[in-house]
């Protein structure tokens, strides 16, 4: 792939596939420390097919999506993987496979939006840039996977905290949580959730209000 002159294409594909596997392994391990209801809301653990696109433009993009990318066509390559019940397919794209990538200008930094547009995806579970070589190490992958799990669990943990602080109105919190999972960008459901969490005292340093007459 164009992102590395040091590795042959098959070596790069193997390295990326192992990197993705270690990310997912760390993600699942971190997810198992959370309550079942939190795990159930984490997008990488949702049911259905998961495709990880390894896209070689000037940078190497690693993008996971629930969208179908259609059948594999020559000279495209795909590799399958699984860990702890989580299964996925890694598909590799470069300007030979996807000519649109040759038109993307990344001279001033990664073009995340342009890469997504070239693939035609609308749902993204994660999307980041990786460095070929040492940047694809298992150590780096473990950090990425753990951090990703923490970020994905934040919404569920926030709603659990809010729910515990508004006794008698749990149904409203549940309704908001359900709406947030399907909300559009306006209003930003993450911003609304964070403001509501702050209004009920945040995750830490909170004490129940004193009973009248106490």
Task: Give the structure's gist in a few sentences.
The chain has helices at residues 9-31, 36-40, 112-119, 138-165, 170-181, 189-199; strands at 51-56, 60-65, 77-83, 86-93, 126-130. By secondary structure, it is of the alpha+beta class.
Description of the structure:
With about 210 residues, the protein is of the alpha+beta class. It has six helices and five strands; from the N terminus they run H-H-E-E-E-E-H-E-H-H-H. It has a five-stranded mixed β-sheet with strand order 3-4-1-2-5, sandwiched between helices. Strand 3 and strand 4 form a beta hairpin. Helix 4 runs antiparallel to helix 5 and helix 4 (about 140-165) packs across helix 6 (about 190-200). The longest helix is centred in the C-terminal third of the chain and has 28 residues, at about 140-165.
Primary descriptors:
214 residues; alpha+beta; five-stranded mixed sheet; 6 helices; 5 strands; elongated
Described by the principal axes of the CA atoms, the overall outline is: elongated
Rg, nearest Å: 20 Å
Order of helices and strands: HHEEEEHEHHH
- State which percent range the strand residues make up: 5-15%
* Class by SSE composition: alpha+beta
Which percent bin holds the helix content?
A: 40-55%
> Treating each run of at least 4 consecutive H or I residues as one helix, how many helices?
6
- Main β-sheet: number of strands, strand sense, barrel status? 5 strands, mixed
Biggest sheet strand line-up: 3-4-1-2-5
Uncertain ranges: 1-5
Report the end-to-end length measured between terminal Cα atoms.
70 Å
Give the overall pLDDT as a whole number: 83
Count of strand segments: 5
